[in-house]
Structure prediction request, 311 residues.
Amino acid sequence: MRFINPKTDFAFKKIFGSDQSKPILMSFLNALLYDEQPIIVDLEIIDPYLAPKIEGMKDTFVDVRARLQSGRFVIIEMQVLNVEGFEKRVLYNAAKAYSTQLMEGDVYKDLSPVVALTITDFVMFPESAEIESAFVLKERKASLEYPQSDIQLVFVELPKFTKALDQLTGIKDKWLFFLKNARDLQVVPDAMGEVAEIKQAFHFANLAGLSPKELEVYERKLMFIRDQRGAIALAEREAEERGRKQGEEKGEEKGRAKGRVEGLEEGEAIGRTKKAREIASQLLGQLDDQQIAQITGLSLSEIAALRGATN
Prediction:
């Protein structure tokens, strides 16, 4: 057997956000949010699209969105590429899911808590060795938690999970191993198959079970991620080379050591901006301005100018 990569948004939604995914999602959330305790006994998987209730407000997309039996909302996102402003986007999505609950006539006590669970395929907090990080509102000096900490941000950094198959000790380990390694497996390991929900997740991830249309979408997603990673790596190499050359030129006038630093910084900035514009130009016919901005780091006004220049 071959399995799709659960870290792509298409695969993640298929495994955790389909109509048949309720037991899978409950097991996954209980493992990651509640230390493998069966706190969640029921949930409703709902449309992950958060339509704005205020004219002019941005639309929001997450990978999976659910309402627990307690009324708490959980929004779940799998992020492969580390794009500029990503931390703000996570906070914005959570705040929007919280603030847009109320309609005219509703009262504040009716607001339900929101948990934003974000799984990243890159390291967000290099200063910490912990795989999971949870953030709530707290008093700065005494660390007192705000009486209504209704917004919680939970991050899981997959690169920090390094356990091998024979080192897995619980359901949480098995879910993290599944996310990180499923695409490299050819069979369902016995230790993983013992958990019915994980076994079902492997069934949804079986490449042979995809329709031709699903397979086409999945392959496009993989190609897009590879292209963007390659473009970022190339931009970094080109910027470094330009910075080195400019640094040497400036060094003749100001001293080689000082000039190298200044030239490197200037070259990196110029190179990144140029490459970002090239990438954005290629994506104009495929994505909307907001998505292009998240990938390239360009402002919406810069993207609008590029779009106007091509028309």
Remarks:
- Strands lie at 43-46, 49-50, 60-61, 64-68, 73-79, 114-120, 132-135, 151-157.
- The radius of gyration is 22 Å.
- The mean pLDDT is 85.
